[in-house]
Amino acid sequence: MILFGRLSLKFCLIIIFFLCFSCENVETESPDQLILTLGENPETLDPHKASLAVESDILLQIGATLLDYGPDLKFYPYLAEEYSVSGDGKVWSFRIRKGINHHDGTPFNARTYKKNLDRAIAPETASPIAASYLSLIENIETPDDYELIITLKSPFLPFAYYLADPFLQPISNAALNKYGLDYGQNPVSVGPFKIREWKSGEKIVL
After folding, report:
1. What would the pLDDT profile of 27-81 be if each residue is shown by its tens digit?
2. 68: part of which helix (H) or strand (E)?
3. CB-based contact 114:142 (threshold 8 Å)
4. Distance between CA atoms of 201 and 197, rounded to whole angstroms?
5. In degrees rounded to 5, what are phi and psi of residue 126?
6. E strand or H helix at 203, and its extent?
7. How many whole angstroms separate alpha carbon 177 and alpha carbon 121?
8. How many angstroms separate the CA atoms of 139 and 153, rounded?
9. pTM of the predicted model as reported, rounded to 2 decimal places
10. Rounded CA gap, 48 and 37, in Å?
11. Distance of alpha carbon 83 from alpha carbon 118, whole angstroms
């Protein structure tokens, strides 16, 4: 799990889904809880199969991305410790931070993330958004565990926006093997929070 400054919040985060007319009845159970109310129920928390804004909001809490926005709205390395773009704008090179684990204890590195990207691209995954983000990729290489090289078919500088999107956050390949088609209800990523309880249509406790 990775905890950087703005993400290291030490409280229990509860996200509750209900109709708007009941909002006035929601109260926190302790000062260590934060309750967020959303008007829509997520269908899946598999980032490769998700497409709803509410799903993106929750994925943002349980995961992280290669790049992230700074207060100045510029992109900075996040799960990557550094990155560069070739002069022709086609080759994106990343050095992945060491010591990051998924919530199940399995390591996150360049090779595990490549498997994630390969899955998102695969037609059988039928990814509604993540696959479209990756449609310009020509090749993905991992020379070692911490170096990731993505080559695009043509220059596309907005690719940075995609790499900062929750729909491209890393997921545990071990959890994918364990849960199979039920992974979307049992997500395992690398963010500051993880799923503790999920009652569909009622609440998600992180």
Report:
1. 555 666 777 777 788 999 999 999 999 999 999 999 999 999 888 989 999 999 9
2. strand 67-69
3. yes
4. 12
5. 55, 50
6. strand 203-205
7. 18
8. 8
9. 0.85
10. 24
11. 20
C-alpha to C-alpha distance for 142 and 159, rounded to whole angstroms: 19
- Could you tell me the two tokens for 122? 């695969």
Contact 4, 78 (CB under 8 A): yes
- Token look-up 């545990």 returns 172
Sole residue written with tokens 């963010």: 191
Q: Token pair 């990155």 is at which residue? A: 83
Residue 84 near residue 77, CB atoms below 8 Å:
no
Looking at residue 115, its amino acid is K
Q: pLDDT per residue over 32-44, tens digit each?
A: 677 777 778 899 9
- Are the CB atoms for 96 and 147 separated by under 8 Å? yes
End-to-end CA distance of the chain: 14
List strand residue ranges (DSSP E) for 40-118, in order: 67-69, 75-77, 80-85, 91-96
Q: How far is the C-alpha of 199 from the C-alpha of 169, rounded, in Å?
A: 23
The continuous run of DSSP H or E covering 69 comes out as strand 67-69
